[in-house]
Specification:
The complex is a heterodimer. Chain A is mainly β. Chain A contains no helices and 11 strands. In chain A, a hairpin with a 5-residue loop joins strand 7 and strand 8. The radius of gyration of chain A is 14 Å and the shape is globular. Chain B is mostly beta strands. In chain B, about 0% of the residues lie in helices and about 45% in strands. Chain B contains no helices and 9 strands. Chain B is globular, with a radius of gyration of 13 Å. The relative contact order of chain B is 0.35.
Chain lengths: ~120, ~110
């Protein structure tokens, strides 16, 4: 079974631009979570999508947004890019089971964004 | 904030067992212990998780103390490819709660 895929793998943007990153979950997984990793702050949770709805959200400004499509693929968007948005953006998928059962998240390789 | 404490770095000789400790003294009864690792600039890789019993899979063993206040991840025969940052995470039982990563332990496997 193929793993989580993320595109593009590398991206260079300039301040003020916007960017869209894409994530395809493992087949059959319905939940997608996004994380940001920087040298200063480490790995931090951005948001989670399940069934095309944002189910959970971390402490990031509104410039960070996301969406999920009916096939469970997800995109995240960052508007008005700042230098501090340079980071590795990671997507993780999980089954998305009902009933509150513990779910393991499986990560993709990440998209490395550099803002100049 | 992360609810775990890990040593910042450890070394291990190739072929020997790597024992990575984690302290989670404030863990509550319905929280699991998860371990992930991240090889340089790649996405974190799931290793193992457990609630209170010891767990083993093809990658590693997880030993949780009886009081559940600490645990140890064991890589039985470390190889150079096991060099990575290892994260110990305490996570709520219900639903798909976000993973809260601390700084982890940087394990260096030395030939």
């Amino acid at each position: 079974k193929a793993g989580v895929t993320q595109t593009p793998r590398y991206l260079i943007k300039t301040r003020g631009q916007q960017v869209t990153l894409s994530c395809s979950p493992i087949s059959g997984h319905r939940s997608v979570s996004w994380y940001q990793q920087t040298p200063g702050q480490g790995l931090q949770f951005l948001f989670e999508y399940f069934s095309e709805t944002q189910r959970n959200k971390g402490n990031f400004p509104g410039r960070f947004s996301g969406r999920q499509f009916s096939n469970s693929r997800s995109e995240m968007n960052v508007s008005t890019l700042e230098l501090g948005d340079s980071a590795l953006y990671l997507c993780a998928s999980s089954l998305g089971l009902a009933g509150g059962l513990q779910e393991t998240q499986y990560f993709g390789p990440g998209t490395r964004l550099l803002v100049l | 904030d992360a609810k775990t404490t890990q040593p910042p770095s450890m070394d291990c000789a190739e072929g020997r067992a790597a024992n990575l400790p984690c302290n989670h003294s404030t863990i509550s009864g319905n929280e699991y212990v998860y371990w992930y690792r991240q090889i340089h600039s790649q996405g974190p890789q799931y290793i193992i998780h457990g609630l209170k019993n010891n767990e083993t899979n093809e990658m590693a063993s997880l030993i949780i103390t009886e009081d559940r206040k600490s645990s140890t991840l064991i890589l039985p025969h470390a190889t150079l490819r096991d060099t990575a940052v290892y994260y110990c995470i305490v996570r709520g039982k219900s639903g798909n709660t976000p993973l809260v990563f601390g700084k982890g332990t940087r394990l260096s496997v030395i030939a």
